[in-house]
Write a structure and sequence with these properties.
heterodimer; A: mainly alpha; Helix Hairpins; 0% strand; B: alpha+beta; four-stranded antiparallel beta sheet; ribonucleoprotein (chain B); 60S ribosomal protein L25 (chain B); ribosomal protein (chain B)
């Protein structure tokens, strides 16, 4: 019976082991497809679905591992690969940063320091 | 004035008269009338970051190439009479891909491969096997007889 592979188990494996698992699942998929052509029982269609999803899980874990490795490599560096940067939107990426927005001239800073907005209240 | 000083003075005066005192511009001698692109410094690339974080795994691997074997009446005839297997194949695969895939997956060499694209858009491959291999055996081994 084709079981759903546990992603927790997959995450413990190394890249080489994962590619091997991927191979076995793809083989299984191929065999199932051949059996389907040869006219097998209807149970095959659910099996095929499970195996396809297993292949997807292994590939997901593989890419996640690869990308996290690359992130580790570039940690602390100034320029990182563009597909690891925040996506947001094109306009937001080009907008001023919070720091840049908050900058004031010395003149303005002095004005605000010396003449802050006062709040008054009337005693009831 | 000493005689040497007098003569050098005369010589500098002669030079100044003939060539001027400012120094001359060096003009490059051109031997053709065409101005060809000069060779400039070309630096090799040294990127500060990879554009793509992780390279993409191969999408058309041997498992994607062969989709399913055909076991229609005509296909069965081909297996028995012509020693060929008939497969449905990915449209992006070429004969070299198919040959490689068959070799890797079923351990069989292909003598020659003919392909066509069916009217519904799926590629069909006729994979002729060499005479020393029996297509019927291979089909049984694959499991679709």
């Amino acid at each position: 019976m084709i079981a759903k592979v546990k992603v927790a188990n997959l995450r413990e494996k190394s890249q080489a082991e994962l590619t091997q698992t991927l191979d076995t699942y793809k083989r299984e998929l191929m065999d199932l497809k051949v059996q389907q052509v040869a006219g097998a029982a209807a149970a095959k269609s659910s099996k095929i679905r499970d195996v396809r999803r297993n292949v997807a899980r292994v590939l997901t874990v593989l890419t996640q591992q690869a990308r996290s490795d690359v992130r580790g490599q570039y940690a602390g560096k100034k320029y990182i690969p563009k597909d690891l940067r925040a996506k947001k939107t094109r306009a937001l990426r080009r907008a001023l940063t919070k720091n840049e927005l908050s900058r004031k001239t010395l003149r303005q800073q002095k004005k605000e320091d010396n003449f802050p907005i006062r709040e008054f209240a009337i005693k009831a | 004035m000493s005689p040497q000083k007098a003569s050098t003075k005369a010589q500098t005066a002669r030079k100044a008269a003939l060539k001027g005192t400012q120094g001359q511009k060096v003009k490059k001698i051109r031997t053709t009338s065409a101005f060809r692109l000069p060779k400039t410094l070309r630096l090799a690339r040294k990127p500060k970051y990879e554009r793509k974080a992780a390279p993409r795994f191969a999408t058309l691997d041997q498992y994607s190439v062969l989709k399913q074997p055909l076991n229609t009446e005509t296909a069965m005839k081909k297996i028995e009479d012509d020693n060929t297997l008939v497969f449905l194949v990915d449209v992006r695969a070429n004969k070299r891909h198919i040959k490689d895939a068959v070799k890797k997956l079923y351990d069989v060499d292909a003598a020659k491969i003919n392909t066509l694209i069916r009217p519904d858009g799926i590629k069909k491959a006729y994979i002729r096997l060499p005479a020393d291999v029996d297509a019927l055996d291979v089909a049984n081994k694959i499991g679709f007889i």
